[in-house]
Each structure stands twice: as structure tokens, then as C-alpha cells.
Predict the structure.
Amino acid sequence: MTTVRIPAGWPATEEQALAVQDELRGEVVLDESGPPPGTGYVTGVDVAYDDERDVVAAAAVVLDAVSLDVVAETTAVGQVSFPYVPGLLAFREIPTVLAALDALPCDPGLVVCDGYGLAHPRRFGLAAHLGVLTGLPTIGVAKNPFTFTHDDPGTARGSAAPLLAGTEEVGRALRTRDGVKPVFVSVGHRVSLDNACAHTLALTPAYRLPETTRRADSLCRRALRDTTG
DNA sequence: GCGACAG
DNA sequence: ATCTTGTCGC
């Protein structure tokens, strides 16, 4: 497991973080469709926190997109680098997630984030931010609609409804299990929204959440538990 | 002006 | 995110 410190020059205030988002948001690439769903590698990333100790643990789990078998997995721990502020989540998660990704012995392929990409107040959520910093294709799959609105998707798995910021479609509410609350998919970097949804469906053969985030979630929690000091 | 608000 | 056991149901 890798250990990371807060990077030099990392934003310390909300104002600085907003400035970074403003500077990087123009680098998001939206005119690529991304890797074909159901092929190559798909990597889930997630983090867990210990607020008492101000410690954060991240995990990256690489799955074979066809079999959904684990190909590789890494963890990293570090000091919490930013408070939780809605709209600034990336500054809390990215340093440790980058360390976990860097430790992987193989190419991550598509990266699936637990949170949003373009579905964000300034269209630059965690998945978009991570994509710009790594150059990797990324998508965001969130468990809540945040501040956005949507009509109810049909009840069948695969049904979707636009996730709206006013009239702008920033993502999609996608039903991954019959009759179960949808997930909220948005583009991060170098992937189309249609493909982001197709990948999400390919990753949910049995549960509401993608296998990537389920695996990364349990691994980072375990890494946090196994941490001392 | 007062909430609500990814994880 | 996190605090947390059993329990109802397919």
C-alpha cells in the first residue's frame, strides 16, 4: 500500500479550489466515444475516511470487462487534503486516488468513479477532474441526484431519463435493476454519455451499483481498517 | 433571506 | 462519508 502526503500547492481554501476548477475545466474532452463497453479493462476507484484521525484510504480495482474478474488491485492511504464541500469533492479524494492508480501494474482502461463527472455545478466533478489529470477515459456513477432533477425512468433495468440542470442534460438517471432506485451516470473525460450508460449496465449484472465501485468500496474500507497510526 | 447539497 | 442488528421478503 502506498502512502501519500498532501501535494505541494494543493488548494487550501474554497476560493483556491474554485480557481483550479476554473482553470482545468476547459481541458475536458467530450468528442470521444471512449473504449467499447464490454471490452478491455475497467477500473473502479473509491475512498473511505476516518474523520477522527483525518486519514483517507483509496482503492483502485481493475476488472476484466468481459468476465468482471479482478485483474489487479491497489490501495493508498494519506492525510485528508480538503474538507467535504459539495462541488469540491475532488479535492478531498484525488491525491490518494492518484496514488492508488499510479501503483497499478497495468493500464486501468476506463476509470469508474463514485460520484459525478459533468453533472456538477461548474461541470467539473470528480470524474472529469480525475480524467483531465490522468488523461484516462473516466465516467461518474453516483448514488444520489445531487441538485439535479429527472423524471422517473421506466421500472425495467436499462430504462433511463435525462438528469437535468435546468434544461441541460448533464447526465442520466439509469435503472440498473428492475424496480430499484436508479443510479446517476455522467461523463467524465473522453467518453460519450451513451457509452457511459452502456458501461454502467455491463457492470451491473447483479447489483444496483457497478461491480467496480462495489469492489473498490470494500477494498478501501478494508485498507482503512488495516491502517494503524 | 433560508435551505439543499456527489462522498 | 459515517454511526449500526436484526429482520422482512424474493
